[in-house]
Amino acid sequence: MKILNQIVISSMVVFVGCNQQNKTSETNKAETEVKQKLITLADFKKIKGVDNVQEVPFQLFTKLDSVQFFVAPNKDATHLKVAYNKFDNYYGFEEFEDYYSIHYSINNNISNSIEAFVLKSEFTAAFELTLKGVDLYEIRSSTFKKSDDFKNKSFKKFGTITEISEQEFKANSKNRIGEALIKNPNIQLQDDNWVYIENGRKEVITQHENISTETGPLANEYVGRSPYLNLEVFKENSDEVAGSFYSFYNIKNAVMFELGTEGYPQILPTKGWVTSVSSNNDVGSNFVISQYLPQTKRQENLLYTNFTNFKIADEKKAFWTDNETFYAEVYPLNSASANGKKQKTAYIKIQLKADLF
Fold this sequence. Notes:
6-stranded antiparallel β-sheet, 26 strands, elongated, mainly beta
């Protein structure tokens, strides 16, 4: 009986001790919650707003409905939950172990901007963006054989598009088809002008007349000759025109502009195609297939699509392996290098439907 009483008493001591410990833990938790001061955006450090995005080290993106703003880069700092607004910009300025410092304009009012610290786990920096979870099929519009379509928002009616590995991309590049552009020795740069010289004949190559600038002529770069088209290709650039334009010139008969592409031309003589991919100045990237018409020396659009979720990394690295299969090196939309960190490259494969054309 004495032994039994001791067991009961011991059990009561253990039970009471555990209960006391739980109460102490709950009390400490309650005290911690009380110490968390209730704050608003007005409690954050006021700063000069961002008036030039080019000066922002990196941008941040989130898929959460709300994010946490801390007044300092540590877990014990007071913080505030802020609803995500797709029109908000999160400009990153410094990277800490678990946090990014950001400049944030309240209600997009640049004169009412603050500095805050956000968790890395809730954001993705521009240089860390990938194609994971991205809908590659999404397009803004398309044109198929002169028929414009602004309602259908998927590439599926034209074919498939998938992300592939760098290894697969490089392996297939060995099977690329298409025409290589070859330098014409008769085209030379003289006095800041490209000229064609042959058998005493000298002709100045006038740049694409449909692109003009207020600051002077375009800066053009000779790319090479297309043996199939019998045309010379130039890359034309301007400070006032975003991106580049590739112009094709007839040199033998007269130095005149005949056709052009927005991206580096990928030419398939077996199909008579002039194709290209390029980053769209507005959204995403453009994929274009045109039919060259030798009788009229013009091009006729077969397919144009404006993909919305990626940009083209290097136009020259794109290639065809057959008449339906196209590969390109791309960047996720909004990705950018920063602080010595390179943006992540991705690779895509476009497979057109066999009976598309």
